[in-house]
From TrEMBL:
<keyword id="KW-0342">GTP-binding</keyword>
<dbReference type="InterPro" id="IPR050227">
    <property type="entry name" value="Rab"/>
</dbReference>
<dbReference type="InterPro" id="IPR027417">
    <property type="entry name" value="P-loop_NTPase"/>
</dbReference>
<dbReference type="GO" id="GO:0012505">
    <property type="term" value="C:endomembrane system"/>
</dbReference>
<keyword id="KW-0547">Nucleotide-binding</keyword>
<dbReference type="InterPro" id="IPR005225">
    <property type="entry name" value="Small_GTP-bd"/>
</dbReference>
<protein>
    <submittedName>
        <fullName>Ras-related protein Rab-18</fullName>
    </submittedName>
</protein>
<dbReference type="GO" id="GO:0003924">
    <property type="term" value="F:GTPase activity"/>
</dbReference>
<keyword id="KW-0472">Membrane</keyword>
<dbReference type="GO" id="GO:0005525">
    <property type="term" value="F:GTP binding"/>
</dbReference>
<dbReference type="Pfam" id="PF00071">
    <property type="entry name" value="Ras"/>
</dbReference>
<dbReference type="InterPro" id="IPR001806">
    <property type="entry name" value="Small_GTPase"/>
</dbReference>
Length: 203
């Protein structure tokens, strides 16, 4: 089996109960657990995916959204190349608190060009929506973030979210290094979108 060209550290951050752990479980194991408990501290999973015909290993860190665990997070921002900021489209408060998560990310991230993806989760709950898609797009554009709406329950856009994030990281000079300094690694131009076309480009 071909070896991964690099390992990328990706954080999943946001308020409690927005579905961060469910997104991670759906992406890594393609399952959805309605009884999943809130993360205490951190959870870590890994997955190898293929982007631009190259295998990339993702080291995925699911961080607790609860305020009482926030003091534990600083060291885990270190070395991260990507961050997925999650809010719940049915909970306006989770959207309004994105600013504090961005401040924390920008304070502790050691890579100042870290790639950020904004994800509006739980779009399957149409009748309970409190945040419009346009509001999400506008917020992502203001903060130069990728954007997608997704559903961990139905798996809508979950894989595309992570693929698009990795694609942008691989196209960001100086953000990652090749494992064992491998040569002849070619990255083709990024497609307009990945997955089913619902992923917004770099805003």
């Amino acid at each position: 089996m071909e070896e991964a060209i690099t390992t990328l550290k990706v954080l999943i951050i946001g308020e409690a109960d927005v579905g961060k752990s469910c997104l991670l479980l759906r992406f890594v194991e393609d399952t959805f657990d309605t009884q999943l408990t809130s993360t205490i501290g951190f959870d870590h999973k890994s997955k190898v995916i293929t982007v631009f015909d190259n295998k990339v290993k993702l080291s995925l860190w699911d961080t607790a959204g609860s305020e009482r665990f926030r003091t534990l997070t600083a060291s885990y921002y270190r070395g991260a190349q990507g961050a997925v900021l999650v809010y719940d489209v049915t909970c306006r408060e989770s959207f309004e608190k994105l600013d504090s998560w961005l401040i924390e990310l920008e304070t502790y991230a050691t890579h100042k060009n870290i790639v950020k993806m904004l994800v509006g989760n739980k779009v399957d709950k149409h009748e309970q929506r409190q945040v419009t898609k346009q509001e999400g797009i506008s917020y992502a554009r203001r903060h130069q973030m990728l954007f997608v709406e997704a559903s961990a329950r139905t798996s809508e856009n979950v894989t595309g979210c992570f693929e698009e994030l990795v694609a942008k990281i691989l196209h960001t000079p100086g953000l990652w290094t090749k494992k064992n300094d491998r040569e002849n690694i070619t990255l083709t131009d990024a497609p307009d979108n990945l997955g089913d076309g619902s992923v917004c480009g770099y805003c």
